[in-house]
Amino acid sequence: MADPRTHRPRLWSSAATVGVLLLAVLLVPPLVQLDEQAVDLSRKLLPPSWEHPFGTDDLGRDLLLRCVYGLRISLLVGLVAALVATVVGTAVGAAAGALGGWTDRTLMRLVDAFSSVPHLLLGIFVVALFRPGVWPVIASVAVTHWLSTARIVRSEVLSLRTRPFVDAAVSGGATRWRVAVRHLLPAVLPQAGLAAVLMVPHAMWHESALSFLGLGLPSHQASLGNLVQNARSSLLTGHWWPTLFPGLLLILPTLAIAGLAGVWRDRLNPRRRSELTL
Amino acid sequence: MARMTGRRALAALPVLLVVTFAVFAVAAASPFDPVKAYAGTAGLTASQENLDQLRANLGADRPLLARWWEWLTAALTGDLGDSSVMRRPVADVIGERLGWSVLLAATAFLIAIALGTLLGVLAGRRRGGLLDRAVSSAAYTLEAAPAFWLGLLAIWFFALRLGALPAGGLTDTASDTVTAGQVARHLVLPALVLGLTQLPWFFLYVRQGVGDALDEDPVRGARARGLRERTVLTGHALRSGMLPMLTLVGSRVPELITGALLVETVFSWPGIAAATVTAATAVDFPLLAALTVLATAAVLLGNLLSDLLYGLADPRAGFDG
Prior knowledge:
The complex is a heterodimer of chains A (278) and B (321).
Chain A (H helix, E strand, L loop, with lengths): L6 H26 L30 H37 L1 H15 L3 H12 L3 H28 L2 H8 L4 H37 L11 H7 L1 H5 L4 H28 L10
Helix pairs in contact in A: 1-2, 1-10, 2-3, 2-5, 2-7, 2-8, 2-10, 3-5, 4-5, 5-7, 6-7, 7-8, 7-10, 8-10
Chain B lengths: L1 H28 L4 H6 L2 H4 L2 H11 L5 H13 L5 E2 L4 E2 H35 L5 H15 L2 H15 L18 H35 L2 H8 L4 H19 L5 H14 L5 H10 L3 H29 L8
Antiparallel strand pairs in B: 1-2
């Protein structure tokens, strides 16, 4: 993984995958003008073919189109959740690292407590009580994802605080607030940004798991997880394609974004060996 | 050693307390109403006096802190309240299902460790080789694959296409007694899928550990003494390469629980993870709260185990930390 020779192809294939998926999600719905909900019972459960590359589902809807819409919804939920989690995590981490002392201890104990509940379980708990709707799902994903960002930002701030430019700013009479906002925050943003990018596929995964369990998005907002859930009855009659393709569309962006983020991480920390993260 | 165990266990206690309190605080902040949940559809037609009476009986009108304290003290005596969806005491539900979850999780863990170690050694002995690249790519893909999706595809292939294994449940539908043979057959698919979801982490750790160990002096020394390659690989490289993985097994409990939530649901396995999902769907607060706290306790226990094993395996890591 750390081999620089493999960087270029990995970078290009990851970038191409992300690009194609983004274009599909952004351009297909406004341009194609096809109704992804259009039911055609004469065409139900057709296997993949040239006309329907992903086949059709039990109501005769084209699965490729359904998957693009599903990816669009999952991606949107993932992006918003990752954004919320990054803002919260950066704020908490920066506050803990910059203020130190009692604030630091309290905030980090809080992070520890949150981390002790398995993330999907915490998500399920929150969604169960605040259901139904899109916002509870976004909140439940965000509430489990800000912890790692808070830890990363805090440790980054702690190591930055001992650096000469911070000393210089302090001796120059800068206030605590000014040091935090003008000197510490800009320096931690790349790390927080990297964490945010890596968080998006993870957040999509969470949303899909919740939707699959029937606790996520309402079924008319067909996310990838809803698609897999709706395909269960078809699967039991031996039709595999409505299950296979939504899952592949969850794996593909995860691998591609991990590939991009891996290159980014190596640039950020050239000396640190690539870790086993995904 | 005992002192460290005690200290770590004591440090876990406040975390557990904070989590139990947070469970009640979140419920209090949510639109969830225990009275309406208890009354069900009858609540729609019941008079206001009846609802108020019920509210008083349930103690739902009392402050958050009082309700939390009452639950906590009752929980310490083994009384976790009644589950509305299972229509039984929560403690009974947990007692009946916990064993099945532990069986599933332990089998999955063993599969992941055995398979991960084997593949990790094979890949780690020649990093960058064909086998390593193939298995590593597969591991990253597997890590990205949702557990429920893998489970469904496994059902399709092994249960429907091949007809080799049952698709779910604990026993055959026709039988009403639980026999070991039936359980074993029904265990194969869920344990395999849950094991596969845990496999990438074990594999990548062993691969890294063995690969690094092969570059180090003990291995060079063993080679210089003319030991056989197999002895070097399993006796020297694997032993030091597996250490970090084994000591971190305890910290994998959260991922195991996350996987179990999905796998038990897909395979209708009668464990506590599937009960958690049922409780969440039905907004059965007493059951959901108890299972959330139980899972947290399992995570803390796993962390404690990790710390202990790490201390045992590496004497340099402080026993007084």
